Amino acid sequence: MSDDHLLIERRDNGVVVATLNRPEVLNALSPRIRTGLREMTAELRGDPDARVLVITGAGRGFCSGADLSNREERVAAESEPGLTSTELRYGFAAELQQLEIPVIAAVNGAAAGAGFAIALAADIRLMSENARFHPGFMKIGLGPDWAASWTLTRLVGHSRALETFWTSDPIDADRALELGIANRVVAHDDLMSEALALADRLARNAPWAMALTKRAIYAALNNDATEQAQLEELNQAWLRNSLDAGEGARAFRERRDPNFQRR
Fold first, then answer.
1. What predicted TM-score, i.e. pTM, was given to this entire model?
2. Which of 45, 181, 224, 231 has its CA 20 to 30 A from that of 191?
3. Domains contained in the chain, CATH given
């Protein structure tokens, strides 16, 4: 799925690049972007060729959040939270974490409000040195949404999450790295090459091993140690019988790079 508000590029190595494409408004969310992101994740869940997803923004911004200057978007943002609106507005963050492929946010500029939440929902965040996070919900009399209270609390702890949302102060790239929100800060002009290099590296891993590792890491946020050890044992038992595990062992013995095929 691709239209002029959300550009989808499928690369030969299994890397999918999704670009929010409303640069004139710093990629503020439109109904078409919201729907497009949901459609994209649904398609990727059933796509055996997709290995890694990279999300970024066109122009100077990553995503400036809800476009409250746009009447259609304002109606969507202010609508009563019934099933349909909840799915369209808030389910996307959880769906990113449920994807069985790595999700990288290449944060090229301002990520504000819901844009901040989208970046938080990725598995890995690379930030341009020029990028800023703007958790500005409190400044407009609102609380966090798009599961930002869940993701940020687990990244930085409850006290720093409260401070972040209550003050709504901008977070520059160096501070984001210090807090553990950003995995890496890179020169602005190198952001996409760095993100794509990481995506390419991950795309060469065994897909089922990556998928079960992602499941295990997110399960660890709620499991105790015994539950987690049991989950790991089940995952390993399944992976040991996969053809990719056999390929990995052969490649190790033959001192070559493995060719994993999701088998």
1. 0.90
2. 45
3. 6-203 (3.90.226.10), 207-254 (1.10.12)
